[in-house]
Specification:
The chain has about 100 residues and is mainly alpha-helical. The protein is built from 3 helices and no strands.
C-alpha cells in the first residue's frame, strides 16, 4: 500500500486561509438571508435580492472549492484555494467595499 501524498507546508497554510474565508462566506450568506427576512417583516429595504442570491452563490462556490482543496494533494489543491480567495475577494469588493 502506498502512503498518501502530503501537501507542502505552503499549500497547507493556503488551504487553511481559504478554509477560514469559506466559513466566513457561509456566515455572510446566512447573515444576508437573516437580514433580508428581518427587513421584509418590518417593511424595510434590506440588502436586496441580488445581494442575497450573490452571497449564496459565492458561498456555494467557495465551499465546493474548499472541498477540492481539502481532498487533493496535487496541483488541484492550491488552484482551488486560490479560487476561493478570488471568489471571496470579488464578493467582498463588489458588495461590501465598493
Amino acid at each position: 500500500m502506498e502512503a498518501a501524498k502530503r501537501p507542502s507546508r505552503t499549500y497547507g497554510i493556503l488551504r487553511a486561509v481559504s478554509g477560514v474565508l469559506a466559513v466566513g462566506m457561509v456566515l455572510l450568506a446566512l447573515g444576508n438571508i437573516g437580514v433580508q427576512f428581518y427587513a421584509n417583516s418590518r417593511d424595510l429595504p434590506g440588502p436586496g435580492g441580488l445581494s442575497v442570491v450573490s452571497h449564496v452563490v459565492a458561498a456555494l462556490l467557495v465551499v465546493a472549492g474548499q472541498i477540492v482543496a481539502d481532498r487533493y494533494a496535487d496541483w488541484k489543491a492550491p488552484v482551488a484555494s486560490l479560487g476561493v480567495l478570488v471568489v471571496t475577494g470579488a464578493t467582498l469588493w463588489t458588495f461590501w467595499w465598493a
